[in-house]
Write a structure and sequence with these properties.
Elements (H helix, E strand, L loop, with lengths): L10 H52 L3 E5 L13 E6 L12 E7 L4 E4 L5 E4 L11 E7 L7 E7 L5 E7 L2
Antiparallel strand pairs: 1-2, 1-5, 2-3, 4-6, 6-7, 7-8
């Protein structure tokens, strides 16, 4: 009989290790999924704020205006906020994206998120960085299938062009 010790795992040790791993994974998965959704919403929230600030600062810089709108292709404003967001410089100061205006930046939408912008399809700023619309405009970010209790975010752009973020939950 050999007194040498065998290297490796027994079948029972391997089964116990796999059982512990499965139990830990089943506990961690829902929290991890929730964290991913939360980070996805925070990323989209920051992207909307950045595009709004870019359009506003460009409006002040060129002293004519700028804006933000929903866009599918990054070339024209079509009100499809969930498909993408377009920041543009309003060189002719008319408050709408036209052929003379230049696109500053286009951000493609995330199919996992729903973005609902103002009904007028654009958030336009004048040469002083103030919004052209009379009432506050909002952009609502939420998961595409917003279930009760999931996070959602409402960005309100006031008359002076400042963005206020309100966190809430889906109902």
């Amino acid at each position: 009989m050999s007194l040498r010790r065998q290297n490796g795992f027994t079948l029972i040790e391997l089964m116990v290790t796999l059982t512990v791993f499965v139990i830990l994974a089943s506990i961690a998965y829902p929290s991890f999924r929730s964290m991913i959704r939360s980070n996805r919403l925070a990323t989209a929230n920051n992207e909307v704020i950045a595009l709004t600030n870019l359009a506003r600062s460009e409006a002040i810089r060129n002293n004519r205006g700028g804006g933000l709108c929903g866009s599918t292709d990054g070339q024209a404003c079509d009100g499809e906020w969930s498909k993408g967001l377009l920041a543009w410089s309003d060189l002719d100061a008319d408050g709408v994206l036209g052929s003379k205006d230049s696109v500053l930046r286009f951000s493609l939408g995330n199919p996992q998120l729903s973005v609902v912008g103002p009904p007028g399809a654009t958030i336009a700023f004048d040469g002083r960085g103030r919004r052209k619309a009379a009432d506050d405009q909002t952009v609502v970010l939420s998961p595409a299938s917003c279930k009760a209790g999931e996070q959602r975010s409402t960005l309100t752009i006031n008359k002076s062009g400042q963005v206020r973020v309100t966190k809430g939950t889906c109902s």
